[in-house]
Structure formats: C-alpha cells, structure tokens
Design brief:
mainly alpha
Length: 119
C-alpha cells in the first residue's frame, strides 16, 4: 500500500517529536522534561526507520551467509556452525549492526564518534 497523501507517517512522527523537543521541554523540568526527551528520541528513531531506504543491505548480508534472519544466524553462531567463517561473519555482522546504529544512533560511526576496533 502506497501512501501519497500528506502528511506522511514520518512527517507526523517528526511533528510530534519536534513538539516534545521544543514546546514540552521548554515548559517542563525534572522527570517530565527527561521523559519528553526520551519520547522525542524514540520518535526520531521511528522516523528514521520509516524513511530508511537501505534496509535491503542487512537482509542481503544475512542471505550471503545463508540465513534468512538474525535469530537464525545467532542460533548458528551459538552452535558453532560458523566457526570456520569468522572473517566472513564479522564482515556481514558489521553491515547488520552498522545499519541498526545508523537508525538508532546516527553519527555513531563517524570519525571520532566511537572507537572502531579491528579484528
């Protein structure tokens, strides 16, 4: 189903997040202010998920390893099924986790944002 009407779901989410970030936070303090920030951050994550056009990348990384989803891959890792393919698994997991971080914590992978350990 394609939504061609306005506002879109992402636009509605963004409007509520902006209201929380500006109006509510400016008019509150203490725990209500903190909870408004948490709620706004959660809405911004949902907004990014709705606007994401790169979700095929982590799915492709899982398929390249031969698994349909993360729980199946996790089970295979736990049982040792992929013990001889650690470099390949690590590369694909970086794709999956990198995508997740781009949605939940944009800028995390930018230089200087966090250490990037190498194997």
């Amino acid at each position: 189903m394609t939504n061609t009407g306005r506002p879109t779901a992402a636009e509605l989410i963004a409007a509520v997040a902006e209201f929380l970030e500006t109006e509510v936070r400016a008019a509150t303090s203490g725990s209500v202010n903190f909870h408004a920030l948490v709620a706004a951050n959660a809405l911004r994550i949902v907004e990014r998920e709705l606007l994401d056009n790169t979700s095929a990348e982590p799915a492709a990384a899982l398929r390249e390893l031969g698994y349909p989803d993360e729980p199946t891959l996790a089970a295979a890792i736990r049982t040792g099924e992929l013990d001889g393919r650690s470099a390949e698994v690590l590369a694909r997991l970086r794709t999956v986790v990198g995508h997740r971080l781009a949605i939940s914590h944009p800028g995390y992978a930018e230089p200087g944002a966090a250490p990037n350990p190498t194997p």
